[in-house]
């Protein structure tokens, strides 16, 4: 603040030197005004005493009597205080980096600069001394001072600039050297003879600085140019005559006023745009970053769901085996029939939910593979109807069929197509009230096989219709909750339909108006030879298959026990091992015909056991992998290790029978 007061004095002195050098009346160079305004903006109104002191001394040096000097200093303090108050009241930023700030600041400079001249004119009018100073010239001098000094002192001089790159530093140095060179032309007589080219040069320099260097350098450029221009008539090579001097100073001041205001606007607008651009870039980077994080989280969640479903399947395997065992033991005929049926139903339900969950994570990881073959759509429909029959019957629903005459050949994965139809039928049964109707129809149209499943159930409201094929979407409705579900069935249906090159569409006239789902699949060609579709083996055929010595290897004792019991009841001789080494030694001693081998064993992996068994027994043993992982690469790995077959957990009794049957 002290430095500001000193500057006030020095600049006041400079003005006085110019005054006396040229007796510039009526032109007035009122440089201290901008310093006083800057000081109070920067340090607050409470520092008025410094301004008062400096203004007082300045006035005394100017030759005013103490009374006049006091009034002059009060006027200075008043002018600066009103300006600083308005600056803060309007909440202007001291960086002048927004168009709003420079617009309001220019307004403040124009209006408050009138305070000292008004007071001064009033005082002069009281004195009898003749003077020819006019109010407007005084005001003009005051405005120039505010425009030139305030931004420079508030921002330009005190800003901590980050170190510029060498290229930027060079550009700044070049721009200012050229600016100073152009400014010094005003010391010669040429500008008066060819004003326009010089003004244009000046304009070019200012535009360069405003657009490329911002408000801080702009305030420096304005200050440097103003000083050089105002010194020109006094120290230049083409000094005007005494009667021309005032006019020259006034025209220079008008010129600087216009330039300063215009280029402050331009550079602050540009700086504002640059700031907005930088913050937008930062925001975009932030968004990209958080998007990346969300994707990673999503991937982790998908992986977690896969692991969860996988882990939950493991305990289900022995439960399912035990149920099969009980079934084989004929326990169904006892008083435990109902509870066991109940458990079997629930286990199947949980298995299906887990399979759906696994499928969704496979979809998200792009891991669904189709094993397409020529398939009659009607056959999938029949299997699906069989599968949902108990549920449909329990809800007392009437199912009508209206099928296209003859087979409808498509190229599809039988299990996946069945899954699509089961999901649609299951939903139709779930979302239709008891005694309702479900209609299944097929037709051909536009080169596609069309399956329509409609019901007269609870229907779907128009807002929900576009969403129901997304993951985890369920209409919030009591019936939905009654039957549970994860909200992923239709997501699976759509993905599987699309993987088959088909489409799925839902229609409903609204709540309680029923729903209609239309599946379209590209028509395929019939298979070359008939009977390529595997026929289900009869249970009798299975039980009649010759008895074998089977080694069951799994670290989960429950699995070994329950599976062993099922195999025993099927008439086989069962050997049991709980780790790899034990499996190898039992195999060496007992030479089993079949080994059912878990992959994840506590000591060595199932792959290593298989390799070693294959080396020892050659083709004399059949190796069946039982693994929690059922992707193509897992199956390939099993094959490379020497396995004949690969079963994915939970392995049902039907899977085991099937595996043993084909041997
Ligand atoms: P879930 O049945 O497990 O809730 P889905 O993905 O199979 O999940 O279905 C999503 C939602 O679509 C269901 O919650 C239900 O609101 C609606 N929906 C599906 N099928 C029908 C239908 N046939 N009638 C009425 N609403 C249905």
Structural class: alpha/beta
End-to-end separation:
99 Å
Number of strands: 12
Q: What ligands are attached or bound here?
A: adenosine-5'-diphosphate
What Rg, in angstroms, do the CA atoms define?
46 Å
* Biggest sheet architecture: 5 strands, mixed
Summarize the amount of helix as a percent range. 55-70%
Portion in strands: 5-15%
Q: What is the overall silhouette?
A: elongated
Q: What would the average pLDDT be, to the nearest integer?
A: 84
Low-confidence stretches: 530-545
Our count of helices gives 22
Strand order of the largest sheet: 2-4-5-7-6
Question: In words, what does this structure look like?
Answer:
Helix 18 (557-569) links the parallel strand 8 and strand 9. 37% of the residues are buried. The chain has helices at 2-22, 32-43, 48-61, 66-89, 99-112, 115-126, 135-156, 166-184, 190-193, 195-235, 242-328, 337-364, 377-394, 414-430, 478-482, 489-499, 539-544, 557-569, 580-590, 606-617, 632-641, 653-661; strands at residues 373-376, 398-402, 409-412, 437-445, 448-455, 503-508, 515-522, 549-553, 573-577, 594-598, 622-627, 645-648. With 663 residues, it is α/β, with parallel strands linked by helices. A five-stranded mixed sheet has the order 2-4-5-7-6, with helices on one face. Adenosine-5'-diphosphate binds at residues 427-428, 431, 455, 457-460, 468, 473-475, 480, 485-491, 515.
């Amino acid at each position: 603040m002290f430095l500001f007061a000193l500057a006030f004095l020095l600049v006041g002195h400079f003005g006085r030197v110019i005054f006396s050098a040229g007796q510039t009346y009526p032109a007035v160079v009122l440089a201290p005004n901008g310093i006083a305004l800057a000081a109070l903006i920067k340090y607050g109104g409470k520092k008025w005493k410094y301004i008062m002191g400096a203004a007082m001394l300045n006035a005394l040096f100017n030759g005013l009597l103490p009374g006049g000097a006091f009034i002059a200093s009060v006027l200075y303090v008043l002018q600066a205080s009103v300006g600083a108050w308005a600056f803060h009241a309007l909440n202007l930023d001291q960086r002048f980096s927004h168009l709003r700030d420079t617009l309001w600041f220019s307004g403040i400079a124009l209006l408050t600069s009138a305070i000292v001249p008004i007071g001064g004119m009033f005082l002069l009018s009281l004195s009898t001394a003749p003077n020819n100073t006019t109010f407007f010239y005084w005001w003009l001098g005051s405005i120039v001072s505010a425009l030139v000094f305030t931004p420079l002192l508030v921002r330009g001089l005190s800003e901590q600039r980050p170190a510029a790159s060498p290229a930027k530093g060079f550009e700044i140095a070049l721009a200012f050297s050229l600016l100073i060179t152009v400014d010094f032309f005003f010391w010669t007589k040429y500008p008066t003879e060819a004003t326009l080219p010089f003004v244009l040069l000046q304009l070019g320099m200012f535009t360069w600085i405003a657009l490329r260097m911002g408000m801080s350098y702009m305030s420096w450029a304005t200050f440097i140019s103003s000083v050089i221009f105002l010194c020109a008539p006094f120290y230049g090579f083409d000094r005007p005559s005494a009667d021309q001097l005032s006019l020259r100073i006034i025209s220079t001041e008008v010129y600087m006023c216009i330039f300063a205001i215009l280029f402050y606007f331009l550079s602050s607008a540009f700086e504002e745009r640059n700031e907005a651009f930088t913050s937008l870039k930062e925001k975009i980077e932030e968004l990209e970053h958080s998007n990346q994080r969300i994707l990673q989280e999503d991937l982790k969640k998908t992986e977690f769901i896969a692991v969860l479903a996988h882990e939950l399947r493991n305990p289900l395997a022995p439960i399912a085996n035990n149920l099969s065992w009980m079934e084989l033991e004929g326990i169904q005929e006892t008083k435990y029939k109902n509870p066991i049926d109940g458990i079997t139903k629930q286990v199947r339900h949980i298995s299906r939910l887990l399979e759906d969950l696994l499928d969704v994570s496979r979809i998200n990881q792009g891991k669904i593979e189709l094993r397409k073959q020529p398939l009659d759509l009607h056959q999938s429909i029949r299997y699906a109807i069989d599968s949902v029959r108990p549920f449909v019957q329990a809800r007392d629903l009437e199912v009508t069929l209206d099928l296209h005459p003859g087979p409808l050949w498509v190229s599809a994965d039988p299990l996946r197509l069945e899954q699509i139809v089961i999901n649609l039928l299951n939903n139709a049964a779930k979302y239709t009230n008891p005694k309702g109707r479900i209609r299944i129809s097929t037709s051909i149209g536009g080169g596609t096989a069309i399956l329509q499943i409609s019901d007269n159930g609870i229907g779907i409201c128009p807002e929900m219709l576009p969403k129901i094929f997304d993951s985890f979407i369920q209409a919030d409705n009591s019936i939905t909750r009654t039957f549970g579900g994860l909200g992923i069935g239709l997501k699976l249906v759509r993905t599987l339909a699309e993987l088959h090159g088909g489409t799925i569409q839902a229609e409903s006239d609204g709540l309680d108006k029923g729903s209609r789902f239309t599946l379209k699949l590209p028509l395929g060609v019939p298979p070359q030879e008939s009977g390529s579709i595997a026929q289900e083996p009869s249970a009798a055929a299975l039980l009649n298959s010759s008895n074998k010595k089977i080694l069951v290897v799994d670290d989960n004792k429950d699995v070994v026990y329950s599976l062993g019991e099922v195999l025993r009841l099927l008439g086989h001789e069962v050997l049991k091992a709980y780790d790899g080494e034990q499996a190898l030694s039992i195999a060496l001693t007992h030479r089993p015909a079949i080994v059912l081998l878990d992959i994840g064993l506590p000591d060595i992996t199932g792959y290593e056991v298989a390799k070693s068994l294959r080396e020892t027994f050659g083709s004399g043993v059949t190796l069946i992998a039982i693994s929690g992982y059922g992707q193509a690469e897992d199956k390939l790995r099993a094959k490379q290790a020497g396995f004949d077959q690969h079963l994915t957990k939970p392995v049902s009794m039907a899977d085991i029978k099937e595996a043993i049957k084909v041997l």
